[in-house]
Each structure stands twice: as structure tokens, then as C-alpha cells.
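Amino acid chain:
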Amino acid sequence: MENELPDPLPVSKDELDAIERYFGDLLDAVFDPKPRRVPAAVTIHNKGDK
């Protein structure tokens, strides 16, 4: 199977706004050169933790 998507993949302003709104804190935590605390909304809990 061959990828038929254009390179680069076009992304609209509205799509970028949605990505930033929902994933902004996570992306900042991943790509920030200074380590810091991961936002509470994306922390991983072990099975059985409440």
C-alpha cells in the first residue's frame, strides 16, 4: 500500500487551533527544552490507582 497523502500535509488554521487547544499543554511538556512537571491531565495512573 502506498501513502497517497501530499507531502507536506496541509493543515488549516482551525485544525491547528484545535490541536493547540486540546494538546497544547502536552506538547509544551514534551518539546520544552527545560524539564518541568507534566500537566495533571496527562499523568499516567497505574491500574488500581484512584
